Structures are given as structure tokens and as C-alpha cells.
Amino acid sequence: MTSRAVQFSRFGGPEVLELVERENPQPGPGQVRVAVRAASVNPADWKVRSGAFARTDAPDHPVVPGFDVAGVVEAVGSGVTTPGVGDEVLGGASGGAYAEKAVADASAVVAKPASMSWEVAGSLGVIVSTTYRVLALLDLRPGATLVVHGASGGVGMIAAQVAASRGVTVIGTASGSHQDDVRSLGVTPVVYGEGLVERVHAITDHVDAVFDTSGKGSLADLVEIAGSADRVITIAHPDAGEHGVRFSGGGTGDPEIEGALAEAAGKIAAGFWRAPAVTTYPLEQAAQAQEDNRTGAVSGKLVLTP
Ligand SMILES: NC(=O)c1ccc[n+]([C@@H]2O[C@H](COP(=O)([O-])OP(=O)(O)OC[C@H]3O[C@@H](n4cnc5c(N)ncnc54)[C@H](OP(=O)(O)O)[C@@H]3O)[C@@H](O)[C@H]2O)c1
């Protein structure tokens, strides 16, 4: 049986993405195949596509982008007892989610709450797992003060709310037009850019840590706000090494991830936390969706709905 997928066979701009008909991927041991209902675009998707993370000129096989998936399990590999065929799940895909059919490790997906839309479900994997990983590294106690740099973004919104729910006081940076969005998360908003240090100091004279979710702006400012480089973690800033700041990259083996997804999905479905706004695109418009995410033309989560 065949189904459609978006893939690229050489690194480059959005034009390298092509919609193809391919053999359905088969779940290996410990994996499930999902009939995809939603798959979100993350900045990592177009960074990988551009070759930014590559050591060679071309990928050694066609690459299907997409780390986040939500859909219905339609086949299970050996050793999988849960989820089962027919279950609605959300989480992380292995081998690409921009497709009608995607494979995921059974341990990387959790039950989709019945009341949650497919679009929201398909946008949670990366932003939730990244949030929980970095907050575990920062190890903040209730009463601590955290600056989330980029609190209007996908990771930043979730990070601000998870930290606040743990009794942490959160100050969130965003552009001028997103100050109200950040405030509505129960977070003190502040405009990023020149003068940020002074604006934060006008709010508080002590910050315990900074979580840089945006990777933009002055890292020196964030270090000054935190008081020392070891109290700053970035997930995206290219100058991390130069400033002695920890860079936390994504990957497998994060023990928090499974519990994180179930907790965050439950809190969002129950209305305690807000998920980023979602804009949907058909699979045919994957290139446009990546460009809109890269340029910031559309904010919130951009989600492909095959
Ligand atoms: N290492 C990892 O594990 C990992 C995991 C996930 C994501 N990431 C990376 O983290 C970054 C953010 O991902 P995301 O999905 O949250 O992106 P996103 O939803 O596009 O959010 C980007 C955030 O950056 C803010 N921003 C834009 N221009 C800025 C500037 N000049 N100074 C400060 N902040 C600025 C935006 O604020 P406004 O919208 O208000 O302008 C927004 O809050 C990406 O680079 C992504 O590749 C890394």
C-alpha cells in the first residue's frame, strides 16, 4: 500500500520539498504506524532541510521532515502492548511526520485527550519535551524567578506556564505586539531588544535563571540579567559557547518526556494551560508552511493536516 509524504533529497530552500507517493512505512519492533491527522512545523524542520546541521553536501536518503505527530494507530510492531490499533495518540514521530502515514516509537506517544483538537495535539511534542528537559536542568524551586526569553513562542509559551504552575515567578520577553498574549499566561511581560536589562531590573532586582527559547537578541544581556552564565540555558542561540552559556539540544533518552507529554496534554485539554494558536496547511503547502515559520510571517504553531 502507498500513501503520500513530503520529502527532500538534497539540502536547500523550500523548493527542495516534494510531495511523493511512497510505500507505507512499516513499524519496527517497539514502534507503531499512525494514520497522521496533524503534524506540526518546527524551526528544526527547515534548519535540517537547509543543511545547517549536515556534515555532507546531500542527505544519504530522502528525508521526510517532521518531529511532531498526532493520529490514529493503524499497525503495531512486535513487542508493542500499548497503544493499540485504533487508539488516538500524540507525540514524537521517528522518520518524519509530514506524511499521511508515520512511524513512532510506542514510548514516544501518549493518548490524545478526546476533547483536544487534532491540530493542537499534533503541535505539542517538541515544545513540551524541550520545556520539561530544560526546566529539569534549571532545577528551580517554588519562589524562584525565571526569565523566559521568547515567551510568546511555541516553546516559550509552554515553558512559562509549566514554570508558573510550579510556583516559579515568570517574566516573559516578547515583541510589543505580543505583550498581552504573554500577560494572559499569568506571566509579567517585557519587550525584548535594546534596554532589556534595564526593563527587567525595573521589575525585579533578582533573577534566578534565564531560559532562552528564542535564540535571538543579545546573550550578554541575558547573562547580565541572570547574574552569571551558568544560570542561563539556551536552546537556539548561536553564541552560546562564546558566552559560556549551556546549549541544550534535543534528543532521545530524556526521562521526563513521556510523563511530560501526558501531563501537558491533560492540563491543556482541561483548560489549565493554553496551547499556542494553530494555523493549518494541507500537506501540499508544506514548503509555504516552513517559509511562514522561518520568516515569522505566521506566529503560533503551523500544522500540516494530510
Ligand atoms: N535545542 C532544542 O532542543 C530545541 C527545541 C525546540 C526549538 N528549538 C529552537 O528554539 C527556537 C524557538 O523555537 P519555537 O518553536 O518556540 O519558535 P517560535 O514559536 O517561532 O518562537 C520564537 C520566539 O522568538 C521570539 N523572537 C523573535 N525575534 C526575536 C528577537 N529579535 N529577540 C528575542 N526574541 C525574539 C518571538 O517573539 P515574538 O513572536 O513576540 O516576536 C517568539 O517568542 C528555534 O530556533 C528552534 O529551532 C530548539
UniProtKB/TrEMBL annotation:
Enzyme's top EC category: oxidoreductase
Pfam families given in the database record: ADH_N, ADH_zinc_N
GO molecular function, one term: oxidoreductase activity
EC number: 1.-.-.-
Keywords, comma-separated and alphabetical: NADP, Oxidoreductase
Sequence ranges assigned to domain Enoyl reductase (ER) in this UniProt record: 12-304
SMART domains assigned: PKS_ER
Name of the featured protein: NADP-dependent oxidoreductase
